[in-house]
Design brief:
Largest sheet: 3 strands, antiparallel
Order of helices and strands: HHHHEEHHEEHEHHEE
Shape: rod-shaped
Distance between the termini: 49 Å
Radius of gyration: 28 Å
Number of strands: 7
Strand order of the largest sheet: 5-7-6
Length: 177
């Protein structure tokens, strides 16, 4: 069973309440009705759907919820798409993965070595030899992190970018040829 089917089965309020009551220990339709406040007709209808689909089982008149369906559904439906590397070097890639998520910087590393790796990654957004006004630098860095001023300052301090009269240019970091 996939997660979408489970969500569809539990999308109806009567079914989710019924399933929850059974999962929490209600062992009969009357106990489910009492725990949920649902009328018996709705409980019986919900139990019919849930037992037909395997979320609830009835053995010797005792209802039990199959709680393993969620874990199984997630495991069976995990995608094993190759993860795009942020850097060809394994160590640098590990550092970048720790601080970059969904194309944004999660936090600025406190350790200088890790911060340097992240800053070199950010410096690659700027073309060598091109001069950028401060607004353009801020716009690029703002897309990465809310404290773009700190990033700009770190890039200059680490000599990855230079600044003169509000104009910035890239002066360090690796260059793709």
């Amino acid at each position: 069973m996939n997660p979408e089917i489970i969500c569809r089965l539990l999308a109806e309020p009567e079914r989710v309440k019924t399933y929850a009551a059974v999962a929490l220990g209600a062992t009969s339709p009357s106990a489910v009705a009492q725990a949920t406040g649902l009328v018996a007709r709705d409980v019986v209808r919900a139990l019919g759907v849930l037992t037909d689909r395997g979320l609830v089982t009835e053995q010797d008149g005792v209802l039990t919820a199959d709680l393993s369906v969620f874990k199984t559904a997630v495991r069976d439906n995990l995608t094993t798409e190759p993860v795009e590397r942020l850097d060809p070097d394994d160590n640098r890639d590990a550092v970048l993965r720790a601080f970059v998520a969904d194309g944004r910087l999660v936090s600025i590393p406190a350790a200088r070595g890790k911060r340097r790796i992240v800053l070199e990654h950010l410096a690659a957004c700027f073309e060598p030899g091109v001069r950028y006004p401060e607004r353009a630098v801020d716009a690029v860095l703002r897309a990465w992190y809310h404290d773009y001023a700190s990033l700009r300052r770190y890039l200059v301090d680490e000599e990855l970018m230079s600044r003169e009269h509000g104009i910035y240019w890239r002066t360090g970091g690796p260059v793709d040829i």
